[in-house]
Structures are given as C-alpha cells and as structure tokens.
Amino acid sequence: MDTGLKIYTDGGCLGNPGQGGWAYVMLLETFQGEKIIAQNKGGEKDTTNNRMELTAVISALRALKAMNDVPHKATLYTDSQYVQKGITEWIQTWKRNSWKTSDKKPVKNKDLWTELDSLAGEFSVNWEWVKGHAGNRYNELCDRMTQEAISSL
Questions:
Q1: From 102's CA, which of 18, 67, 82, 140 has a CA 20 to 30 Å away?
Q2: Is 11 annotated in the active site?
Q3: Annotated catalytic residue: which of 2, 11, 132, 148?
Q4: Of the listed 10, 12, 43, 44, which one is catalytic?
C-alpha cells in the first residue's frame, strides 16, 4: 500500500530502564519528491526502550489526527519488532485474554498499547519493520533526534 504518506519512528534509552527519547518524521510524496511535513521528539527521565518506541508511534498518530489536509492513510516504519508485531499480531490475543500474555502475566505497557490501539483504529496504517542502523535515511534521522532528546534531559 503506497499511500504517499510515510511515517518513520524511533525510540531509545540510555540504560534500560534509564533516560529515554523518541522521535518521528512524517513525509508526504509530492510531484517534487518527498517532503517532511511534520517531525517531533521528546524524552523521559526514567523509562524503557519499549515505552519510548511506543511513545514515538503514538505521538506521530496524534499529530496525524490533528492534520486535516493530509491522507489519514499511511505506511508507518519502525525498527521495533515489539511495536510492529505487537500492533499487527499480538494485540488481538492480548485483548481476548484480558491483557494477559500467553504465560498469563499482565501485558507490559498496557496503558500505551490501549492508546495505540485506539489511535490506530482511526487510520488505515500499513505497519512496516525496517532494520535499524542500516542506512535508511529517515530511520537514521529519527535515531539522531532520539539521541538529541535523551541528551537534552
């Protein structure tokens, strides 16, 4: 599904748990080429890598929700298999099992997963995993922004 709207996200931590950061970059394909239409970053002092990966995606979808003049249909690229598999595969089972994992433990980060599930339901999103630190221009940009967010804490 090539929609013309692409979202790249990243999250990371210095220590896990530790100081964390997240970032997203939103691109629109135009007749002149790709154009960054939104980007943001942020951080938290005491968090985990997975929470930051989820926060990046949630922040991007919140921003998309606020935009009226762009398609609400996107391809979202994450280098987190936790996020990609969580939203496309695992979440339905978690909900069926009252937010318990297969070994009957509570799902970690349920607060973020429920928010992501709600937001994602408002859009048509194709969830793509990309290898991190592998030269993808916008994944690398998100990684740099994430590190800047961590450094600013």
A1: 18
A2: yes
A3: 11
A4: 10
User: Is residue 81 classed exposed, middle or buried when 0-12, 13-18 and 19+ CB atoms within 10 A define those classes?
Assistant: exposed
53 classed as catalytic: yes
pLDDT at position 2: 47
The reply to whether 79 belongs to the active site is yes
Question: Which domain does 40 fall in, by range?
Answer: 5-151
The catalytic residue among 12, 20, 53, 86 is 53
Q: Give the CB-side neighbour count of residue 94, counting CA atoms within 13 A.
A: 19
Active site residue 122: no
DSSP 3-state assignment of 33?
strand
CATH code where residue 87 lies: 3.30.420.10
pLDDT confidence bin for 3, thresholds 50/70/90? low
**10 a catalytic residue:** yes
Q: pLDDT tier at 133 (50, 70, 90 boundaries)?
A: confident
Return the H-helix or E-strand segment holding 12: strand 5-14
Counted domains in the chain: 1
DSSP 100: B
Question: Residue written as tokens 């993808």?
Answer: 136
> What pLDDT, on a 0 to 100 scale, did the predictor assign at position 51?
98
Yes or no: say if 26 and 3 are a contact pair by the CB < 8 Å rule.
no
